[in-house]
Design a protein that fits this description.
- The longest helix has about 45 residues.
- By secondary structure, the chain is mainly α.
- Helix content is about 80%, strand content about 0%.
- It has one domain.
């Protein structure tokens, strides 16, 4: 009986030590690790289309698309750099570089909103694609969500618990352009659930490290799901009022 009790105590200690190790790892490296995951998703997704749709596209794509791609790629590099700076305790450099990120985010929103009607006209007139006008709801929603989350992150930059989660959620939202490059994911409109799955990894991190879910997730995730659902509805159903809106935008 004593040996059984001893084994149970030892197993309990080993489990406790393992959980402590996981907590420490996630506390230190979660956001850096996720920024690297974002980079992998971007490279993996865009590698499927970048050659035929941009680098050696025929006919050539609008020049603004190159700036759009460069800005969004820079964001992923910026995110990795910012996460690494926090990890090596270069907080002052992190904060200084953050203002570059704020300017980059503004440029991304402007470029995203500008390129959407330009590429819609190109896809419709030059490539003779159908349904491109209805699809504008997706990139417009992305820019609204990203811009709002980053604006809140800037406002709460002195509250790290809010700031880093808002930037993380905003960056998750950009990944639909990458994962949507896979035909099955795009055709079945499941790119948003995949993004929400990435956000849920942050929720899981909070539960393991802090034992509770931060209020940023509790407020943001339900609102994002509502916005995502509405954007997909506009795209797939394309109600008459949205058709009139897209015609006005493209006029």
């Amino acid at each position: 009986m004593a040996s059984v009790a001893g084994r149970e105590i030892l197993e309990s200690k080993n489990t406790s030590n393992t959980m402590t190790t996981v907590k420490v790892f996630l506390s230190k490296y979660f956001y850096l690790l996720m920024s690297l995951v974002f980079a992998v998703l971007v490279v993996w997704g865009f590698s499927r289309t970048v050659n035929t749709s941009l680098l050696h596209a025929s006919p050539p794509r609008p020049l603004l698309l190159w700036f759009h791609g460069a800005a969004f790629s820079t964001w992923v590099v910026f995110l990795i750099a910012q996460s690494a700076l926090v990890r090596v305790r270069k907080v002052s450099v992190h904060r200084l570089l953050g203002w570059f990120g704020a300017g980059l985010a503004v440029a991304m929103v402007v470029l995203g909103c500008a390129i959407t009607p330009i590429m819609t006209r190109f896809d419709t007139v030059v490539l003779h694609q159908t349904g491109a006008d209805a699809f504008m709801s997706i990139p417009f929603y992305d820019m609204i969500a990203f811009g709002t989350l980053i604006a809140l992150a800037i406002c709460w930059r002195m509250k790290p618990d809010y700031h880093r989660r808002l930037v993380f959620i905003a960056s998750c939202g950009l990944m639909d352009a990458a994962v949507g490059r896979f035909a099955f994911i795009f055709n079945n409109s499941i790119f948003f659930p995949i993004l929400d799955g990435l956000i849920l990894l942050g929720v899981g991190r909070d539960l393991v490290v802090d034992g509770r879910v931060n209020k940023v997730y509790r407020y943001a995730l339900p609102l994002l799901i509502v916005g995502q659902s509405f954007a997909v509805y506009l795209w797939r159903v394309n109600p008459a009022w949205w058709q009139a809106t897209t015609r006005a935008i493209l006029a």
